[in-house]
């Protein structure tokens, strides 16, 4: 049973190719969000780690133990959502990935982590450690496509945000993307950057009725 990843995706391909959105997953090991924090937790870079912590993604595994999740589970014949593969495949990053492809310190209980959307990060970590950090205020180094997914596409989200989940809410890529935006301020973008993202042909028109709780 899939619990829907709780309505907030971290980021098809054809519709968004002009903006660099991608579904190609690089190879490498999953490192975990605790590793991402080392470089993505400063205001100068956008503090993506803290932005993630404030989303429901960060508590996706924890949420499976809630009374609401247990009640939903029973409607699908699942007694313990936190132990069910049908739930964990969307509430835990890299759940179905072999242990050999995860760093020894990878913590699955951190829920839907950065790499659920951006792909395994070991190559990214290695490349950034080997590169010189740009001086403060300068544009960051462009990340290679074989390093990590810089701009995950809508199909990444729909692997879990779909009608198979008992808690599914109508999904629209652009609408939901704005809710979890964690842009790097060093990359100068037009103020209407996100508004210019094309509507995805697979978007549910009912999504416009969804109101997000703050």
Overview in brief:
By secondary structure, this protein is mostly helical. The chain contains 10 helices and no strands.
Descriptive overview:
- This protein has 214 residues and is an all-alpha fold.
- The chain has one domain: Flavocytochrome C3, Chain A, domain 2.
- Helices cover 28% and strands 0% of the residues.
- It is built from ten helices and no strands.
- The chain is globular.
- The N terminus is likely disordered.
Number of helices: 10
Distance between the termini: 27 Å
Query: Gyration radius, to the nearest Å?
Result: 17 Å
What's the average pLDDT? 87
Q: What does the main sheet amount to?
A: none
- Shape summary: globular
CATH fold call: Flavocytochrome C3, Chain A, domain 2
Strand/helix succession: HHHHHHHHHH
Beta content: under 5%
CATH class: Mainly Alpha
Number of domains: 1
Helix content: 25-40%
Stretches where pLDDT is under 50 for at least 5 consecutive residues are 2-20
Count of extended strands: 0
Name the structural class. mainly alpha
What is the strand and helix layout of this fold?
Blueprint: H1 13-16, H2 33-36, H3 48-53, H4 60-63, H5 67-75, H6 85-91, H7 114-118, H8 122-130, H9 154-158, H10 173-179
